[in-house]
Design brief:
single chain, alpha/beta, 11 helices, globular
Length: 370
């Protein structure tokens, strides 16, 4: 099958639209049609060279669509099923899956190389073998993906909204609900209110935060944060520090969550300063892979019993949490419609990322044409 796809041949270069050949699905693989793909900042980290990857690669890791064909040993999916792509596969058998940490599944180890679990590459084109980001490659009209990366969803759910639950929603929501363990009455500070931070806001609000402070220099993002449950919105970390000191009578925030576009040691210091004794600093943001972006006094960390918690996929387990979040959307407890601020065609993918980098979007979505 032929497919039009957005390909990156080198970090720092724009995406190129190419026609590729999609390999036929093997025993435990599935041929899918993508209808929608979210424009997530993680792709931008790779575009900028913050994270290493094998090129050429079809980008995109947040998507939804329909199953077209299944491998001979696939049992739980059939043609016509609607699905959300999980950007980390879930084998269900490795140590991490067996202990309830499927976001750390061993099958995710080759996501930046882009080949399928059996070692094959999912696309072929003018430059030979093409990988797919996180083995899903949602910037392609069609793709062959591992069955372990496909989460079946109910047919009545709108696919454009469902696509967001493949990455941005659980990563942000779970950063608050799971990684920060926000509880009723807590004070929470969230730094960076883009696609991830907005969902951290609505996760913390749903978990019962009493004081929920959103920090972002962009005015429309601060306004948007209040629509998703923030009780306060400020432009700087200094304002947040002053506010959290006032609201808690000097105690500090129970948790701080870092979801800015690029992780820096400065924001980690700011978050640690705003965090109470015994509190948690959640690091969700990505940045340059090799950089040391946590520079704190270990003695102070120990004396005040603070905890730094890394957060991948928001501590979620996709097979369980993706359907759960969609159920919460159906019941009105999770906002998805309001997250989408702009849609793009596949040919507009570079414009979409320019808009993301310029802080114009909460979430942009590619609408695939077929």
């Amino acid at each position: 099958m032929k497919s039009k796809a957005a390909v990156l041949h080198e970090a720092g270069k724009p995406f190129e639209i190419e026609e590729l050949e999609v390999v036929a699905p093997d025993d435990y693989e599935v041929l899918v049609r993508y209808d929608y793909s979210g424009l997530c900042h993680s792709d931008l980290h790779m575009v900028k060279g913050h994270l290493p990857f094998r090129a050429p690669m079809v980008f995109g890791h947040e998507g939804s669509g329909e199953v077209l064909e299944v491998g001979t040993k696939v049992r739980d999916l059939k043609p016509g099923d609607h699905f959300v792509a999980s950007f980390f596969p879930v084998c269900g058998r490795c140590r991490w899956c067996a202990t309830g940490n499927s976001r750390l599944c061993d099958l995710g180890a080759h996501g930046l190389d882009g080949f399928l679990p059996g070692g094959r590459f999912p696309f072929k084109g003018a430059s030979g073998d093409y990988g797919s980001m996180m083995t899903v490659g949602t910037f392609s009209q069609y793709a062959t993906v591992p069955v372990d990366s496909v989460i079946k969803i109910d047919d009545d759910l709108p696919l454009d909204k469902a696509a967001l639950v493949g990455c941005g929603v659980p990563t942000g929501w779970g950063s608050a609900v799971n990684s920060a363990n926000v509880r009723p009455g807590d004070t929470v500070v969230i730094y960076g209110i883009g696609g991830i931070g907005t969902n951290a806001v609505q996760g913390a609000a749903y978990a019962g935060a009493q004081h929920l402070i959103a920090v972002d220099p962009v005015a429309f993002k601060r306004e948007n944060a209040e629509k998703f449950g923030a009780t306060h919105a400020v432009a700087t970390a200094e304002e947040a520090q002053e506010l959290v000191t006032q609201l808690t009578h000097g105690v500090g925030a129970d948790s701080t969550i870092i979801t800015i576009d690029q992780l820096t040691s400065e924001v980690v210091r700011n978050a640690a300063e705003a965090t109470s004794k015994g509190g948690t600093i959640v690091v969700t943001s990505m940045g340059q892979y090799e950089d040391n972006t946590i520079e704190l006094s270990g003695v102070q960390l120990a004396l005040w019993s603070k905890r730094i918690q890394g957060s991948l996929y928001g501590g979620c387990n996709p097979v369980y949490d993706i359907p759960k979040l969609l159920d919460l959307y159906r019941s009105g407890h999770v906002k998805l419609d309001e997250l989408i601020t702009q849609t793009y065609s596949l040919e507009q993918v570079n414009q979409g990322y320019e808009d993301l980098d310029a802080h114009k979007n909460i979430r942009g979505v590619i609408v695939h044409e077929h």
